[in-house]
């Protein structure tokens, strides 16, 4: 009984709208089958060549880069619920259409369309969390969503691989069904009195704020994202070093396991102070972890490297969301979040291209050193911005309504 009471008390500490987001996120991520297995589907089922598959996968990053930048202003004007429902319902329709696409051009167009619509979701969801929470609770809420995302990310590829053995098209239909179910959940249960007082002021704001601190923060986020997204090159390096696909899966499983085990306790620890320096520490650990791959020649050494950069990823995630949600005025919260999110999309597009070029010119060791240097640059820039960021956060928090 005491345990049930404690769980009830913990649940009631967050608004009902947050739990709609949390459960919907978990449902959606558990059904995210298509994107993780898209490369396999295009190769084995659509019979496309390596270059064609690479271009199609790059459409995911391109769509995210464009869409997340547009999602923020849309969220500021129409509210998070409208944008999230548009993203999920539109993404569901595009997933279904993609299951019937044939040939390179139609498939590339379908993937780009899916990315442009579905990527509207992330800035809107981050804005929704910021609207629903405040203080240390905000960082904890971001980390709870991050935990749900990674539970789904660890489970969906395994379940999707099993389902693919029965029907590849079934993956598209089930993925679309979970997106549609989440959109319905938001339509029925998410509170609509989101941010009415902000909408008029938001319309008067510029699409691209003239805020030097924001753009410097965007640069740091891009450097961080280029480092993190370079994990995709690990598969190529593993193949070159003679490791098997199963061993590669074991190494990446370290990332998912650590996020599930450490995501909540580390996030709650960081939320106590909410200091921007945590993000610089996360970037530094990310760089150290990727540098570890340059020195690793055994499976265990690569696992240790993944463990180090995973801790950096966990540390940086929640606090970075909190910082950017409070960096700008409340009526432009979505715009600020969307612009930083678009840097992650740009990194998703550029990291494989940059990593591939470095791998060909410098070899695996040289590639990892340069990539680690990008994370070091992000850490140094975040440290340089720390005083200004902390000062602005203090002013925003002191002027926020109780």
Describe this structure in words.
By secondary structure, the chain is an all-alpha fold. The chain is 84% helix and 0% strand. The chain contains 16 helices and no strands. The chain has helices at 2-12, 16-30, 38-45, 50-78, 80-98, 104-118, 121-132, 136-164, 168-189, 196-204, 212-228, 234-240, 245-273, 277-295, 299-327, 333-399. It starts with a helix and ends with a helix. GO terms for molecular function: transmembrane transporter activity.
Low-confidence stretches: 1-7
How large a portion of the residues is in β-strands, by DSSP E? under 5%
Main sheet characteristics = none
Strand count: 0
Shape: globular
Element string (H = helix, E = strand): HHHHHHHHHHHHHHHH
State the separation between the terminal residues, measured CA to CA: 34 Å
Mean pLDDT: 85
The chain-level structural class is: mainly alpha
User: Taking Cα atoms only, what radius of gyration do you get, to the nearest Å?
Assistant: 21 Å
Amount of helix: over 70%
Please give the count of helices. Answer: 16
